[in-house]
Amino acid sequence: MSKDIGIDLGTANILVHLKGHGVVLNEPSILAIDRKTQEVIAIGKEAYEMIGRTPASIEVVRPLKGGVIADFDLAEVLLVLFLEKINTRSWFSKPNILICCPSNISEIEQLSLVEAAERATGGKIYIEEEPKIAAVGAGVDLLSPRGSMVIDLGGGTTDIAVLSAGDILHSESIKVAGDDLDATIIQYFKDQFQLLIGERSAEQIKIKLSSAMRLDEAELEYAVVKGRDLATGLPRSINVNSNHIFEAIEHHLISIARLAKTVLEDIPPEIASDIIEQGIIITGGGALIYHIDTFLTDYLNVSVLKADQPMTCVAIGTGLMLDLILSGKLERNQITKTKGSRVGQFFKRLKRRLLG
């Protein structure tokens, strides 16, 4: 008996949803590789713990960067290893699989992921756009003719989409998201405190202190940040608060808000009326930024609401979307590969490996 599996192939994390079981895997989209043998020595959380702590012989790699697949050979490996980790072969036979991918994925990358999923499970494969899946996971009725709008603040990109009657009417994507906020925080500490902090430290301080608005003293959260003093080269720690992180990321948040405003300006008036009535939904890890909903509401003059489970919206949405497809309520084509396309893909990948 076949079962259904949904995969959120995110820049920061990969989540796997199994029908009847919920989200069964949620791990960072990271591998650790031995530089000499090219052997994968760790994936997910184990590899994440190695960031900034490995010898020269080990490389920690993110196959997905900036919302796109930077190295889809490694993305394949990561996908296969995660599916093997949850022992898919024993859980179900030839499942129906829906993969939610980054926005700007190419046809070659699609085929590559299909091949990886087929190799791991032998199932039927479907691929869908991330903002649409996020909306479904947040509770939007995709089949309704009424317009809805979702802002998915992910790790590599922020995707903004207006949907109606089962499809996207208008969408925009910007490469400003969680990874960029981390990089900006690192630069902020260099410039303001002459302190060099690592990628993991920046992400952890973002999670703990980030705010989309300047806070009063009563609301401030504080934390100790540790790093290397750029003047002396010695370890140093400093006390920071939420307003420091707000100063670091404010310009990125304004960029996202401006793009959302552009989307609202380009939609039909009836759809705009629906959105004003229902509000805009925020999903993704960025939805956890303190006061992000208030900031966007003030900027757009439209009510902005956080999804109930912003981090797992896309994973949950893959399962719900797959139900719509398999029930015939939403028409989608299964992604298959003919013999010719397999041969063509092989030579394209061979060329890329030889020529770079």
UniProtKB/TrEMBL annotation:
<dbReference type="Pfam" id="PF06723">
    <property type="entry name" value="MreB_Mbl"/>
</dbReference>
<feature type="binding site">
    <location>
        <begin position="11"/>
        <end position="13"/>
    </location>
    <ligand>
        <name>ATP</name>
    </ligand>
</feature>
<comment type="function">
    <text>Forms membrane-associated dynamic filaments that are essential for cell shape determination. Acts by regulating cell wall synthesis and cell elongation, and thus cell shape. A feedback loop between cell geometry and MreB localization may maintain elongated cell shape by targeting cell wall growth to regions of negative cell wall curvature.</text>
</comment>
<feature type="binding site">
    <location>
        <begin position="203"/>
        <end position="206"/>
    </location>
    <ligand>
        <name>ATP</name>
    </ligand>
</feature>
<dbReference type="InterPro" id="IPR056546">
    <property type="entry name" value="MreB_MamK-like"/>
</dbReference>
<feature type="binding site">
    <location>
        <begin position="155"/>
        <end position="157"/>
    </location>
    <ligand>
        <name>ATP</name>
    </ligand>
</feature>
<comment type="subunit">
    <text>Forms polymers.</text>
</comment>
<dbReference type="InterPro" id="IPR043129">
    <property type="entry name" value="ATPase_NBD"/>
</dbReference>
<dbReference type="InterPro" id="IPR004753">
    <property type="entry name" value="MreB"/>
</dbReference>
<feature type="binding site">
    <location>
        <begin position="285"/>
        <end position="288"/>
    </location>
    <ligand>
        <name>ATP</name>
    </ligand>
</feature>
<keyword id="KW-0547">Nucleotide-binding</keyword>
<protein>
    <recommendedName>
        <fullName>Cell shape-determining protein MreB</fullName>
    </recommendedName>
</protein>
<keyword id="KW-0963">Cytoplasm</keyword>
<comment type="similarity">
    <text>Belongs to the FtsA/MreB family.</text>
</comment>
<keyword id="KW-0067">ATP-binding</keyword>
<keyword id="KW-0133">Cell shape</keyword>
